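Postdoc handover notes: sequence design on the structure in folder B. Input tokens:
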């Protein structure tokens, strides 16, 4: 009984936690500290202390309804307040607790709240897994695979057919010919996997706050895409006037000076796809983050041409997130909108501050590509 009650309380606790996360999802999506507590399968989310609702019985005290002097019809009063009097309280205050939430459940909440459609994979990873499934019954096999229910059923059928079965003494004894064993067959399961290619401007105009916006946005992108694919590979490209592939740590902490040449990142992205991730076999998701500043000399026209003739034909969708910077012109998003705004795989979103991350994720992932 106590076990069932504990399980019931735990389920109620989980539902309360789920409701609070959904209610405050925009707030959680703007916070970066929860990313630092991310585990392999769980993420720790800070929230006010949660108590399971229950009756609480306190000590009997005077002054309640039906106690003390008074006549019928007298108004019930609370007495004169006495501010600043009394001793320090002994009861604990409200604390913030950390609740471990499975990443799968967090992705489900994200999908429900943002109304994200499930993704239908376009490419397919050229790997086929082999899996044994016990889907049949045989007359021979090892004892470890004996199917007891089927064996006794066969014994019962045999005894009824031969007249040996006695309803008043229903003893069923299987013999060797009654034995049945589970059998398996090998099935081939194609796996749909995906690659995320992050690109970020690391020139002097991209500061710490801009990179933090990128880091938080990337966390929610990965949370959703990992729920949609069996496996995700992630590649990181940084660029100023030149582009290079780096690891995750370098991606979020590197800062370089100089100008910005966005086409260098798009060329490297295209090269990665051609050499490692052919579009016929992979679901490809490039995400580019920049403050919208680009070097002159026709580099924006080169970017537009690279997208139109190469990248947009190969990817599930190409997402450009423009973060606001005091030093960036913010022009690149407007240029993309002007020249490629009608292209289906291209998604453009402007992220001015942390509150915009919620809307950016909805724009990036809302088409289900």
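Designed sequence:
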């Amino acid at each position: 009984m106590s076990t069932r009650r504990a399980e019931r309380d735990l389920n109620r606790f989980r539902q309360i936690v789920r409701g609070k996360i959904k209610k405050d999802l925009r707030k959680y999506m703007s916070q970066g500290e929860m990313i630092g507590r991310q585990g392999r399968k769980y993420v720790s989310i800070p929230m006010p202390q949660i108590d399971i609702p229950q009756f609480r019985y306190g000590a009997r005290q005077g002054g309640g309804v039906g106690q003390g002097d008074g006549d019928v019809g007298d108004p019930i009063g609370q007495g004169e307040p006495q501010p600043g009097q009394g001793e320090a309280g002994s009861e604990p205050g409200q604390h913030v607790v950390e609740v471990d939430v499975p990443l799968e459940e967090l992705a489900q909440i994200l999908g429900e709240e943002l109304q994200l459609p499930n993704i239908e994979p376009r490419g397919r990873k050229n790997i086929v897994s082999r899996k044994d499934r016990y889907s049949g019954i045989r007359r021979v096999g090892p004892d470890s695979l004996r199917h007891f229910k089927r064996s006794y059923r066969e014994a019962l059928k045999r005894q009824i057919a031969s007249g040996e079965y006695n309803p008043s003494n229903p003893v069923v004894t299987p013999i060797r010919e009654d034995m049945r064993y589970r059998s398996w067959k090998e099935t081939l399961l194609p796996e749909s996997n995906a690659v995320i290619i992050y690109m970020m401007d690391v020139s002097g105009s991209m500061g710490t706050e801009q990179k933090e916006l990128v880091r938080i946005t990337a966390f929610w992108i990965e949370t959703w895409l990992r729920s949609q694919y069996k496996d995700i590979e992630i590649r990181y490209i940084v660029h100023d006037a030149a582009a290079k592939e780096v690891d995750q740590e370098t991606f979020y902490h590197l800062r370089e000076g100089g100008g910005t040449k966005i086409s260098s990142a798009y060329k490297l992205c295209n090269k990665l796809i051609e050499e490692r991730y052919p579009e016929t076999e992979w679901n490809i998701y490039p995400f580019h983050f920049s403050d919208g500043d680009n070097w002159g000399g026709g580099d924006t026209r080169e970017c537009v041409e690279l997208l139109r003739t190469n990248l947009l034909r190969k990817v599930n969708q190409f997402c450009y997130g423009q973060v606001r910077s005091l030093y960036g012109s913010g022009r690149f998003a407007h240029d993309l909108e002007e020249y490629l705004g009608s292209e289906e795989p291209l998604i453009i979103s402007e992220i001015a501050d942390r509150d915009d991350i919620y809307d950016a994720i909805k724009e990036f992932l809302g088409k289900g590509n």
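Context for whoever picks this up: The chain has three domains: 1-51+96-115, 128-188, 194-365. Don't rerun without checking with the PI first.
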